[in-house]
Amino acid sequence: MPPTPAIPIAPAALLVPRRGVPLERDADRAAREYREFSSTLRQLPISPTLRFHSTQRTVWAQGVKRTLTDRQFRVLAYLITLGGRIASREEVLAAVWGDTRPRQGSRTVDMQVARIRERLSLPTVILTVRGRGYRFNAAIAVTESADGFNGW
């Protein structure tokens, strides 16, 4: 029996898309992944920096002036002064709120940390250590303004 002649078939015809999923060629997928990667890369800060102005309670994050509330500024300043040491919620409450601190088990510190991260547009400025508390990210460079940084 003689061999059957080869029938020319386009390579794309050999690829069968899954039900309901459009077929994506390798070149298209590679181009899309490169665009997504480069977009993500542009959003990452090369070296995050914070600059404080303690009398005005303002912070410059990545060169953009950000205004924090008094409590937010004090929470951030307290964590920075600890030099990367972990601070529990209770410790932050005692240091920042003092005698006027909210009741035991309050989520006040959690909310303030979330707002600080949002206002500074630096989600890793304060790191959460699960079950223990919070600490300032030591990879972020902190500089003082002309009047100096003396906490609060």
Topology:
Layout lengths: L10 H4 L11 H18 L5 E5 L4 E4 L2 E4 L2 H12 L7 H9 L10 H13 L5 E4 L3 E4 L4 E4 L8
Parallel strand pairs: 1-6
Antiparallel strand pairs: 1-2, 2-3, 4-5
Helix pairs in contact: 3-4, 3-5
Q: Which fold name is given in CATH as the topology of the largest domain?
A: Arc Repressor Mutant, subunit A
Structural class: alpha+beta
Arrangement of strands in the largest sheet: 3-2-1-6
* Global geometry: elongated
The whole-number mean of residue pLDDT values reads 78
For the record, the count of structural domains works out to: 2
In the CATH hierarchy, what is the architecture of the largest domain at level 2? Answer: Orthogonal Bundle
Give the name of the CATH superfamily of the largest domain. Answer: Winged helix-like DNA-binding domain superfamily/Winged helix DNA-binding domain
- Strand fraction band? 15-25%
Question: Span between N and C termini?
Answer: 94 Å
Profile the largest sheet. Answer: 4 strands, mixed
**Number of extended strands:** 6
Query: What's the alpha carbon Rg, rounded to whole Å?
Result: 26 Å
CATH C-level class of the largest domain is: Mainly Alpha
Overall helicity: 25-40%
In terms of per-residue confidence, which ranges show pLDDT below 50 for 5 or more consecutive residues?
148-152
Topology pattern, helix = H, strand = E: HHEEEHHHEEE
Written account of the structure:
Helix content is 37%, strand content 16%. Strands 3-2-1-6 form a four-stranded mixed beta sheet, with no helix packed on it. A two-stranded antiparallel sheet has the order 4-5. It starts with 10 loop residues before the first helix and ends in an 8-residue tail after the last strand. β4 and β5 form a beta hairpin. It contains five helices and six strands, in the order ααβββαααβββ. α3 (70-81) crosses α4 (89-97). It has 152 residues and is α+β, with helices and mostly antiparallel strands. The longest helix has 18 residues, at 26-43. The chain folds into two domains: 11-43, no CATH class; 49-144, Arc Repressor Mutant, subunit A (Orthogonal Bundle), CATH 1.10.10. The model is unreliable at 148-152 (pLDDT under 50).
